[in-house]
Design brief:
The complex is a heterotrimer of chains A (190), B (428) and C (323). Helix content of chain A is 25%, strand content 24%. Chain A is an alpha/beta fold and 190 residues long. In chain A, strands 3-2-4-5-6 form a five-stranded parallel sheet, sandwiched between helices. Chain B has two domains: 99 residues, Urease, subunit C, domain 1; 308 residues, Metal-dependent hydrolases (TIM Barrel). Chain B contains eleven helices and 19 strands. Chain B starts with a strand and ends with a strand. The mean pLDDT of chain B is 97. Classes of the chains: A alpha/beta (190), B alpha/beta (428), C alpha/beta (323).
Chain lengths: 190, 428, 323
């Protein structure tokens, strides 16, 4: 969410994860979640729109294929909880879709594409607070690019990607975009 | 110094001519005039017109001195090139007695910027119920000849008939504000597609036309004079044209704002454009211009209607009807009639000076610029353009709909009986 | 969206669909344990009502409070003595209080427009009904209700364009109805085909230039309609000579069980409220399965939340069709 802008200009960037890398990372994350949770019971995956949602769905598929039963997947829009709401023009809301059994006493795994300042996750924690009381909240991200501004860390990380602040990390996902890839753009060095 | 020697003025737009104004009259007309002791006014490029006469002015005094006084209103009139104005009767108290009309008349004399001819109310308190003492007002020092309930319509047919008959005794005229009251209950703007969309109650053209048609028939029936105030619709022009063709004694006036502005301005919901009768459609504007050009409409009258700021600085429905007009009238006539070639300067003199003076039976105004006539003259520069700035108005009020508009022409000088009330565009 | 919402005409198709989409998200809030979002924390919304309208005021109040805004209710009715001055003076007072949005209901057409454009206030102005002019949030909630019933949904979201070609009959006192004006504009913008049905005395002059059909014959229109929106007939109109008697009006333009039977199976019946039962609508119709009148009220809160959020939620209003 924090690193979306960058329309595909002339600088299409350096690919740091391709489709197979992403698939492998998600498989690993799925296993780690199961290991940490000791199975799939009481798990709820909540993707943060837009790209956290398909990631959550892919993780859920992998968990289902390992455990044999479906894990509830939903989406959690944090727009109204953002601390920079007043700094930009009013934004369209995205889907919030909480699975029917809710989140009370569940282990909620928040799923996002890129972890950067941590402000999105802070907003997500506030949003969860208004929705119920989970037993625990964990965080899975495809990429952690550093530069945290809040005391927040991911429990499950696809790839740690040291970046400079001038760079932009761009995640594209089949379904939302046309292919799976993670690229870095706008690097200071040629 | 005795008198003014005006050099090189285009009288009614004709060849440059010198005019000597002395002892209150036009003393000499010619070229190469020389007059010892007279103040010379260079009028090269300026048009000389007979002092304008307004048949329809609201001076608001007595009663609404916060909007206008006789003094401020006549100052505005002088700046607009007027040497005589007819002050409408809807004051507080209403000018329905000899006492009130004499008071207004006296205030005009004291102000000295232009002559004020009070209009007498047709009915007591403008209530439309019984005739005011029309004869007493006619016989008063104010010598009232024009009677009008302007602002209200004399809608009762019998009362209107009686008024038309009664004023014959002293050669008066009834100036009707033509507005069928039931058809215009709560009316806010021209009835049309836009009023429906804006949710503002419509003021249908038929409400004006029905009264004009009735009054023309009544005037013909009783053999009296009818004057129709502020004609605003194409249909009204047609009815008046038809009445004149029949030889009936009907005259009509149009207002500058109805010659220029259209009802789409109401979409701003800014009550600066709220006026009664309302701004009409482009078709109506064209018909008014054509009617004024062919003489169907005899007169341009301002309906100068000052209102204090708070009566316009509010929502549309709560706002007062009316707009300023004296200082911009001639410019708008130039813009809408002279520049497009519909009227020449002689025509302007007829519509804005001779005809209104004739209708109002004013002897000392509306006379050609000829030797021996009262020296009521204005000099006008049609070549300049100016942007209307409300704060520059001499009126106490600021409700001009022309704010920020660029209009042609400027009154350079106005002479009332040989005295300059305006010189160099400034009040004297 | 522009800074103000004064007329349904202010909304292009993209803007309108953004509001409705946002409302779709916000409507689910009603089913959650905590019916509150923090988006307008610290913002002040003033409900400035020069006319009584408890329903509309409560709807806006609930909407603003659910977005965590501070709400000030200002009932200015009765100050008509001072004519229009009260509007300006009240506006200046609100400005001094630091209102971010003024939701205004006024008996004079164009009053919100004046408030927004006169320089009296800097806040956003939302028209909550002005005279016989417009009531844009009512039209939005009606459109939202129509989408939910007639427009197909796609994963909980409204599918853009799904009112395209749908036939909506708006029946009753169109002449004096701000609801009808706003609906005619908005539903047209969204691609629906609107037919205004009324006796000739209750259709505005110039309605022929509106982007709608008109009819004097309710029975001819009903079988083709996908939705029927009944307008209230105000008591003062009943004696205003617009029609001979209330009984004749009901007979020709009222929706009763017999007429309801001529509707298509999917057709819904709407009413902006408050209803005059037995006049424009009979009780059996108002309480029937086709009636979505109660749901309209629920939808009203969501739509007004969406409007307030999109006007006040960011540094500037959500930008729609124009820059």
């Amino acid at each position: 969410m924090c690193a979306q802008p960058a329309p595909a200009g002339p600088d299409t960037g350096r690919v740091v994860l391709d489709a197979r890398d992403i698939a492998r990372a998600l498989t690993r994350i799925s296993h780690e979640i199961l290991e940490r949770n000791k199975g799939a019971s009481d798990l709820v995956l909540l993707g943060i729109p837009s790209r956290g949602v398909p990631l959550a769905e892919r993780i859920a598929e992998r968990i289902a294929s390992v455990e044999g039963n479906a894990v509830p997947v939903g989406s959690l829009d944090v727009t109204m909880y953002r601390d920079d709401l007043r700094l930009k023009p009013a934004r369209a809301l995205m889907r919030t879709d909480i699975p029917a059994d809710g989140i009370d006493d569940k282990v909620v795994v928040l799923v996002d594409d890129v972890l950067f300042s941590g402000r999105t996750i802070r907003a997500a924690l506030d949003a969860l607070n208004d929705l119920g009381r989970p037993a625990a909240v964990r965080l899975a991200v495809l990429v952690d690019r550093g530069h945290r501004e809040l005391p927040i860390r991911a429990d499950f990380v696809g790839k740690n990607l040291p970046t400079s602040l001038v760079e932009q990390v761009r995640v594209t996902l089949d379904g939302v975009d046309d292919s799976d890839a993670v690229t870095i753009q706008g690097a200071a060095t040629p | 110094m005795t008198g003014y020697l005006i050099r090189g003025a285009a009288v009614l737009g004709g060849d440059p001519t010198d005019l000597l104004l002395r002892d209150g009259v036009v003393a000499e007309v010619g070229t190469g005039l020389d007059a010892a002791g007279a103040e010379v006014v260079d009028a090269a490029g300026l048009v000389a017109l007979p002092g304008l006469v307004d048949l329809h002015t609201h001076l608001r005094e007595p009663g609404r001195e916060d909007a206008e006084t006789v003094e401020t209103g006549t100052r505005a009139a002088a700046l607009g090139g007027f040497t005589a104005v007819h002050a409408m009767a809807n004051t507080e108290p209403v000018a329905d007695t000899a006492g009130v009309v004499e008071q207004v008349w006296r205030l005009g004399r004291e102000a000295g910027y232009c002559d004020v001819y009070p209009v007498g109310a047709v009915t007591v308190g403008l209530a439309g119920e019984r005739l005011a003492e029309l004869g007493a007002m006619a016989d008063s020092a104010a010598r009232v000849r024009v009677f009008s309930d302007d602002g209200c319509c004399v809608s009762d047919a019998v009362l209107m008939r009686r008024a038309l008959e009664y004023v014959k005794a002293f050669d008066g005229v009834v100036a009707q504000h033509a507005q069928e009251p039931r058809l215009t209950e709560g009316a806010q703007m021209n009835e049309g597609e836009l009023s429906g969309r804006l949710g503002l109650t419509g003021w249908p053209a038929v409400a004006e036309e029905a009264i004009i048609a009735r009054d023309c028939l009544l005037a013909a029936h009783v053999g009296s004079r009818l004057h129709v105030c502020h004609v605003s619709t194409a249909g009204s022009v047609e009815i008046v044209r038809d009445a004149k063709r029949k030889g009936w004694n009907v005259t009509a006036e149009a207002c500058p704002h109805h010659l220029l502005l259209t009802d789409d301005l109401a979409a701003t919901y800014d009550p600066i454009y709220k006026v009664n009768p309302p701004l009409r459609s482009g078709v109506d504007v064209e018909a008014l211009r054509a009617g004024l050009a062919d003489g169907t409409i005899d007169v341009v009258a301002t309906d100068h209607a000052p209102h204090p700021h708070e009566d316009k600085d509010c929502e549309w429905a709560a706002a007062a009807f009316g707009m300023l007009g004296l200082e911009t009238a001639l410019s708008i006539v130039q813009e809408t009639m002279v520049d497009p070639g519909l009227l020449d300067w002689a025509g302007v003199a007829e519509r804005m000076s001779y005809a209104p003076a004739r209708i109002g039976r004013v002897a000392d105004h509306g006379r050609p610029i000829e030797v021996g006539n009262p020296a009521n003259v204005l000099l006008y520069d049609p070549a300049v353009r100016r942007v209307v700035e409300p704060s520059e108005s001499a009126s106490l009020s600021r409700n001009t709909p022309y704010r920020g508009m660029e209009l042609p022409g400027r009154v350079v000088a106005t002479f009332l009986r040989g005295h300059a009330t305006v010189l160099d565009g400034k009040l004297q | 969206m522009k800074r103000h919402l004064l007329s349904a005409a202010d909304l292009g198709r993209d803007d309108a669909e953004l509001v409705l989409q946002t409302a779709a998200e916000l409507r689910e809030l009603a089913d959650r344990p905590i019916k509150k979002l923090p988006a307008l924390r610290g913002r002040t919304v003033v409900n400035l009502f020069f006319e009584d309208s408890t329903r509309t005021r409560i709807s806006f109040e609930a909407a603003a409070k659910r977005l965590s805004a501070d709400v000030i209710n200002f009932a200015a009715k009765g100050s008509s003595l001072s004519k229009g001055e009260s509007l300006k003076d009240t506006a200046l007072t609100l400005e001094a209080m630091g209102a971010d949005a003024v939701v205004v209901r006024h008996g004079a057409s164009g009053a919100p427009h004046r408030l927004a454009h006169s320089g009296w206030v800097r806040s956003s102005v939302v028209n909550a009904g002005d005279g016989t002019h417009e009531h844009p949030t009512q039209a939005l909630l009606d459109a939202f209700t129509l989408y939910r019933h007639l427009g197909s949904t796609d994963g909980g979201r409204l599918r853009p364009g799904s009112l395209e070609g749908r036939r909506i009959a708006v029946v009753g006192d169109v002449l004096h109805s701000r609801v009808a004006r706003s609906n005619a504009l908005l539903l047209r913008t969204l691609g629906a085909e609107v037919t205004l049905v009324a006796p000739p005395t209750l259709l505005p002059v110039g309605v022929g230039t509106w982007p709608v059909e008109t009819s004097y014959d309710l029975d001819a229109v009903l079988p083709k309609a996908d939705a029927v929106m009944m307008l209230r007939v105000q008591r003062e109109r009943m004696t205003g000579g617009f029609f001979p008697t209330p009984r004749e009006y009901s007979r020709r333009y009222g929706l009763d069980g017999r007429r309801m039977a001529t509707l298509q199976d999917h057709t819904i019946v709407m009413h902006p409220g408050p209803m005059v039962r037995g006049m424009e609508i009979t009780a059996d119709v108002a309480d029937s399965d086709r009636s979505v009148i109660v749901e309209q009220v629920t939808n009203g809160v969501a739509v007004r939340m969406a409007v307030l959020y999109l006007l006040l939620g960011g540094s500037e209003p959500a930008v729609g069709g124009e820059e």
